[in-house]
User: Fold these one by one.
Assistant:
Number 1:
Amino acid sequence: MTDIKTFRELQSEATEWRRYLHENPELDYRLENTARYVAEKLASFGINHIETRIAETGLVALIQGKGGVGPTIGLRADMDALPIVEASNKPWSSKVPGNMHACGHDGHTAMLLGAAKHLATTRNFKGTVALIFQPAEEVELPSGALKMVQEGIMDRFGISKVFGMHITPGVDIGKFSICPGPIMGSQDDFDIIVKGKGGHAAHPHRTVDPVVIGAQIVLGLQALVSRRTDPLKSLVVSITKLNAAQAYNVIPDRVEISGTVRTLEPTLRDFAELEIPAVARGIAQGFGADIEFKYMRSVPATVNHPEETKTAMSAARKLVGDSCVNDSPRVSMGGEDFSYMLEARPGAYILVGNGPTAACHNPAFDFDDDALPYGIGYWVKLVEEILGREADVCLAER
C-alpha cells in the first residue's frame, strides 16, 4: 500500500510543473500554452490516449488499469488563472502582467499531473481513470465545466463517477474537509437600472433622483434576507456595483446597481429571482421612478453525493488518518462550476489545506508546494479505493 512518503518523492518534480504554470498564467478559455504543457507531460508519462480541444482548450486523458475492463472514474483539475496583478513577490511570480494564479489552479493541475504519473506507472486497478483538465472555471456563462459537460465528456468517455478538489488557505497542510450534500453555494448575478429624471444638483425637487432611490433599494434588498427568509437557511444578497453621474453638480437620469445572490437552496434561487425585482420596483415606483431588471443564473450549488462522499472520506483517511479529515466543515457560499459535473454524474468535491497563506483571489496569494503530495496522494488513494479492490479480485482470479 502507498503512503504519503511515496507521494513526497514526486514533490520536487510537481513543484517544477506548478511553478512553471504559476509563471505563465492564462485566462478563461485562452489556455493554449497551458494545455500544450499538460498534454506534453501526460504523453511523457506513457499515457497514449489524450484528447484535446474539448471546450476549446480542455483535455481528457485516459489511463487503463492492468486489472482489465471496469468502470471509468473522472478526476478533475481546473487550469485557468485570474486577471489580477500579482503581489506575492515570489521568485516564480507571474511573468504575464495583469494575470496570476490567485486561486490555486496551478497547484490543482500539478497535483493531478503527479497522480497521473504515479497511476500511469503502477496501473494497479481495474477499469479506467479519466483525467479531466478543465479551462475557464473562473468564467460564469458558460463556464468550462458546463461546456465540457455539454460537449458530452461523461458519455463520450463512459465516466460513471466524477471527483474534484480545491485547496483551502487557512487550513493546515495535510488536512482535508468534506461533507455530503451542499459544500459550496450557487451563484447568480443581477442588474437593476433605476430610471428617474435627472437635473441640477442644486434643484433636487425638480428631479426624480435615482441616486436616493437606488440607496433605498440597496437597503430594502437586505430585508429579503433578514425578514423574508428562514434564518436557518442560507441566502446572501450582496450589492457589488453602483454607477451614477460623473459630476458633483448633476443628478443623473439613471443609476445602475449590480449584485450577486448566493444560496444552498434551489428554492431560494427562485425566491431571489422573483422578489429582488419586486422590492426594487415597489421602492422605485413609490418615488415616481421605475426599473429595468436582469437576473443571470450562473453556477448551481456544489452538492456532494452521499456514497461518493463516504468513498472520498475513506480515501483521505487512509492517506492522513481520521483526525486530519473534517467531516463537518463550514459550507462556503463561494461558487464552483464543478457543480455542473456533479449534476451530470455522482461524485464528490473535497477541500485540502494550503496552510496560512493569503486568501484565494488575493494578489498576495500563492499555492504552498508542501500541499502537493497530499493532493497527489488523495487522487491515488481515491483510485485505489474505487477501482483497486476490483483489480485485486481480478488479479487473484488470474
Number 2:
Amino acid sequence: MKQREQWSSKIGFILAAAGSAIGLGAIWKFPYMAGTNGGGVFLLVFLLFTIIIGAPMLLAEFIIGRSTQKNAIHAYKHLAPNSKWHYIGVLGVVASFILLSFYSVVGGWIVTYIVKSFTGQLSNLNANEFGVLFDETIVNGPEVLLAQAFFLLITIVVVQSGIQSGIEKASKILMPLLFILFLVLIGRSLTLEGALEGVRFFLMPDFSQLTSSTFLLALGQSFFALSVGVSIMVTYSSYLQKGEDLVKSTSSVVGLNILISILAGLVIFPAVFALGFQPDEGPGLVFVVLPAVFDQLPFGMFFLVLFLLLLLFATLTSAFSILEIVVSVLVRNKPTNRKKIAWISGAIIFILGIPSALSFGIWSNITIFGFIMFDFADFLVSNMALPIGALFIAIFVGYRIPVSILEDEFFQGSKASKLLFQLWLFAVKYIIPIGIGIIFLHSLGLFS
C-alpha cells in the first residue's frame, strides 16, 4: 500500500522542489544577505558552497526519501532500525516549526503589500517614501499578526487536503511567469542611470569584504536556498516514482535556484545604487527597492501587483513544503487525521511566530545574544539547524546506508557515470562533514 500520493510528472516535482525555496530563499533572503555581506564575494562563496556542498546534500536527501517512500522521521527508522538516527528527522521537524514561524511573518508582509497595492497606498511614492512605508508596515503589530494569520490560513487549507495535484499544476504555469517577469524587471533595472555600479557590487568580488562569518552565512544561505538540512527534500522525494532520474532532478533544482538568486540580484542591486539606497538595507530590501523599480515602469502598478501575487504563490509553495514535513510525520499512516493535525500544527506555528512578528515593533527591545526575535529565529534555523542537520545527514548517508542502496537509487533512471557516483559519495563522506565542521568551528572562534 502506498503511504502517500506521488508526483504526476518529473517537471512537476522539479518545479515544486525548486519552488520550495525560490519564494523567499532566492527572491527575499539572498539579495539582502549578499547586500549585507560584501555583494560579489558573498555570491562567489554562495555559488561554491551550493555546487560543492548543497547539491550533493540535496541528492543525498532525495535518495533517502525516494528509497524509503516514508516521512522525514520514519525514513531514517526504516534505513537504520533500532538506532538513534531518526533524531535527524526530529531535528528537521522542530526546525520546520521555527522556520515557518518567522517565514510566515514575511509571507504576511507580502499579503499586506498586495492589499496596499489594491488600495492605492503604493501609488505615487518616491524611493524614500517606500522605505518609510516598509518601516511603518513592520512595526504595526496588529496588521502584521493579521497578515501572518491569513498567510498561515492559506497554507493550512492547502496542506490539509494534500498539496501535490494543485501545487504541481499551478507551478507549471506560475513559476515560468515569475521567471519572465524577472527578465522584464532586469531589463528596466539595468537601464537605470547608475545601475552599473550595482552590477559591479554584485558580480565583482571584493575579497577585502571576506570574513569568517561570510562562510557560515553563505553556507546557511546555500542550505536555505535548496531547502536541505531539515529533511524537507526527504519528504518531497518520498512522493517520487522509482524510475525518475535523481541526478538530473538535483541538477535542475540547483540550477533553477542559482538562476533565480542571480536574477534577483540583477534586479535588486542595480536599482539599489541607481535609486540611492544602501545595499545593506536588510530584510526589507525587496519590499523597498522593487516597488521603486516598478514605479519607473509604464503600467508599473499593474506589474507590481502581478509580481506580488506571483511572489506570494512562490512563498506559499515554500510554506507548503515546510508544513508538509510536519504534517506527514504526525499523520503517519492515518490520512483521516491530516486535517486536524494541519490545523493544530498551524496554530502552534502561529503562536511561535508572534515574537518574530512583533520584534520590529513593540518587542524590538527584546533580544537574545544581540538578535531581535525575528533575526534569532532566522539564525537558529539557517546557521545552526540547517548546517547541523546537513552534517548528520551526510554522515548517515556516507557511513550508515549500504553502498548498494546508494548505487541503486543513484543510477535508477539515470545514465550518470560511475565516476560521478564516486565523486558524489566522496563529497558526502569527506568534503561535506569536514567543510561544515571547519566553518562551524571557525565561526564560533574555536578554529582559525
Number 3:
Amino acid sequence: MQKKPEQWASKIGFILSSAGAAIGLGAIWKFPYMTGENGGGAFFLLFIAFTIIIGLPILIAEFIIGRGAQKEAISAYQTLAPKRSLWRFIGHWGVAGAFLLMSFYSVVGGWVLTYSLLSIPGMIIGNGTNYADLFATITGSPFLTILGHFLFIMINVVVVSFGVKDGIEKTSKILMPLLFIFFIILVIRSITFDGAMEGLRFFLQPDFSKLNTENILYALGQSFFSLAVGVSVMVTYSSYLKKDVSLPMSAASVSIMNIFVSLLAGLAIFPVVFAFGLEPTEGPGLLFIVLPEAFAQMPFGELFLSLFLLLFLFAVLTSSFSMLEIVTAAVTAKKQRSRRTTALVAGLLVFFTGIPAALSSSSLSNVTIFGKTFFDASDFLVSNIMLPGGCLFIALFVGFKMDKQLIQQEFRYGNQLGDPIYNAWFQLIRWLAPLTIIIVFLGSLGFL
C-alpha cells in the first residue's frame, strides 16, 4: 500500500511554517550583528532592496518548482529537468547546502538552548554580571557547546519525525505569533532607554560611505539567508501544498514578515547597544550580550528574559526543522525508509559534522581555514557562496529551462494576478536576479 504523501493542513499553516523556516537565526541573531559590522542603516536598506527585488522573486520560483513537481528538492529537479541535464544537480546542491548550514546553525541553536535553560532559574541576570564575559564562558566551554549542539539537533529529530502536519505546522502556528508579541514588548522598552536615539540613527539613517563591495555581498547573502532561499528548502515545503493557494501572495507574506522581524530585531538591539556603550561590531555574540542587558532594566526582567529566550529558541527551531526536513524528505523519497530512522541518522550526521564549528570558540579556536575559524568558514561558505550560487542556479533554471506553461499555471493558481504582474516577475527572475548575483559576486572577488 502506497504511503499518503505529506501535505499542509491549511494555507496559514504553510505560510507560518515557511515564515518560521525563514524567521529564526537569520532575522533575529544574524541580521543585527551583520548590520552592526557592515554600516548600519545603509546595510539595512540594501538588505530590504535585495529581499524585495531578488529574494522574493526567487522564493516564488522555489515555490513554483516544488508545487509544480509535487516532489522534494532532489526529485523535483529530476522531474522537471531534461534527462542527463546538468540542471538536475541543483537539488543535490540544495540538500548539501542545507546540511552544511544546519551543522553550524545548530551550534548557535545550542547557545540559545543553553541560555534558555540558564534563564529559567534566573542564572543570567544578576548584579554586576558582565554579559560579554558570560557569553565567552558559555561558548568557550567544549562540554556546554557540544551538549547544546547535540540536544538542539535531537529536538529537531523528534519534531521532524512526526512529519509536516503533526510536527512542523502545529508548532509554527502556536509559536510564531507569540514571538511577534514579545518582540514588540522588547522594542517598546529598548527605545525608551537614555541614549537610544543614537542607536536608532545608526540603524535607520543610511550612511553609504561605509559600504564597499564586500558589504554589498553580505547584504545579498543576508537576504537569502533570512528567506531560506538558495538551498531548495522552500521547494520541499511547497511540494506539500495544495493548488488553491496563491504562491506569489504566500511568498510576499513570508517576505514581509521577514523584513518586519528584521526591523524589530534592529529596533530591539541597537538602542540598547548605544544606550549602554556597547559595540555594534560585537559579532555573533551581540544578541546574547544585549538581550540580558535590556531585560535587566525591566520589572520582572528575569521572567521576561526567560520567556523571550524560549520563544527565540522555538523560532530558531522552526528554521532548523526546514533544514532537517529537506534532507529527511530527500532520503525517504529515494530509499522508502522510515521517516523517524532517516531523521535520526541525518541528525547524527549533522551533529558530527558540526563538532568543529562547535569547538571554534574553545579547543579549536586557533585552527583556521583561510584565516577563519571552522564556524566562520562554514558561515561564509554557506551565506556567501552556496546560497547566492543556489539562487543563481534556480533563477536560471526557471528563467530558461523549466516549462513555461507550468510556470504560468503555478504562478496564477489561487489568485487573480494578471499578465503585467507575471511578466514583471518573470523578467526579474530571468534577467535581473542572475545579473545582480553575478555582478555582486564578481565585485566581492575584486574582478569589478
Number 4:
Amino acid sequence: MIQKLISIFIRDTELHSKKSRQKIGLLSGWINVSLNLLLFIGKLLVGIISGSVAVTADAFNNLTDMGSALVTILGFKLSAKPADKKHPFGYGRIEYIAGVVVSVLILVVGFEFIKSSFDQILNPAESGIEFSIPMFIVLVLAIGVKLFMGYLNKGFGKAMGGSETLDATAFDSISDVATTSVALLSLMLSQFVSFPLDGYLGVVIAVVVLVGGVRVLLDTISPLLGTPPSEELVRRIKELVLDHEEIVGVHDLIVHNYGPNKILASLHAEVPANSNIIFAHEIIDQAEREISEKLGITVLIHLDPIVIDDKRVNEMREIAQECISQVDPRFTMHDFRMLDGKKQINLIFDVEVPYERCQTKAQIRAEIEELLRQRDARFHPIITIDQSYIGD
C-alpha cells in the first residue's frame, strides 16, 4: 500500500533521487494534516457534547499533531533548498530544526492538559459526563486511524532510507492510540464513579504527551549537536577504501552530517612509503570518486606514507602494539614512525581510544610509556592520544 501511494506521486525515475525524499516527506505531511484535522473535529465534538476534559484534551492533542505535520512539511521544503553563500553545506539540518519546533509544541500542549485536568480534579463538573454509542464509535474509529497513521509514517520513513522526523511522527501516532484509549475509558467509566475520574485520566494523557514531547526533543537535538555515523556506513567507507590493494590501512575517519542528504567525511589512508607518489595520488582520487558515487558522500582522503618493508621498523611496531593492547585491547595504533639510535630509540605513534576509557589521556600515555621502557630502556615514546569520532 505504501509503495502504491509513493508510485502515484513519484515517478520511477525519481525514486532514488534526492527529490524523492522531499516528495515522500511532503506526502506524509499532508496526509497527517488531513487526518489529524478530521480527528480534532470529531473528538472536539465528542468532548463538548459529553463534557469530558480527557476527550477534549485528546482532541487538542490531535490539533497539535496537525501543527506538527505543517512544521514537518515546511521542514522538508526548506531542507531541499540548494546550498548558497550563506550556507555552503545546504539547508538539510532544517529537517531537524522542524523536529525541535514540533517537540516544543507537544510540550506546550502537554502542560495545558495538566492544567485543565487538575482544574477538573479540584472543581469537578456537577452535570457529569454523558456517554452515547455515536461517541464510542467516533473514538474507536480515531484509534484505528492513529494505528494506520503510525504504520504509514513508519513505512514512509523506511522508503526514504530512514527519517528521524517521520519515525518520531510514527511513534507519536502510536502513543496517541494510548491517549485516545484512555479518553475512551474515561468516557465509559465516568458515569459509574462519583470521583472525577475524567480529570485523573486527563493527567495520564498529559504525562504521555509530555514524555513524547521530551523524547522527540532529544531525538531531534541529538543530530544537531552531532552524532556518530552508523556502523554500517563506517564499514562501507572502509571497505571501499581498502578494496584498493595499494591502500594498507585507514584511520582518523570523521563523518559530518549536514542533513539526511548532505554528508561530508575525511580520513587518512595508509600507503607504502616507497610507492610512486603520483600513482598513489591517483588511487586516492579513485577511492574518493567511488565513495561519492556509491554512498553519495563527499569525502576527502589524506595520504599517509608508512614503512612496511623494514624488518626493524616492523619489529618495533609489533612491540608498541603489544604494549598498547596490554593497557586496553580496544586501543588502536596508527602513524607509527621510528628514529633509531644507539642510546635512544624514538617511537612516534598515535593511539586511538574509545570514549568509555577509565583513565585520562595522560594516564594512558604514562602507562604505555612504562610498558615500553620495561621492554627496552632505550625506548623514548612520543605518543599522541586521539579520540574516536565514529563511536565504538
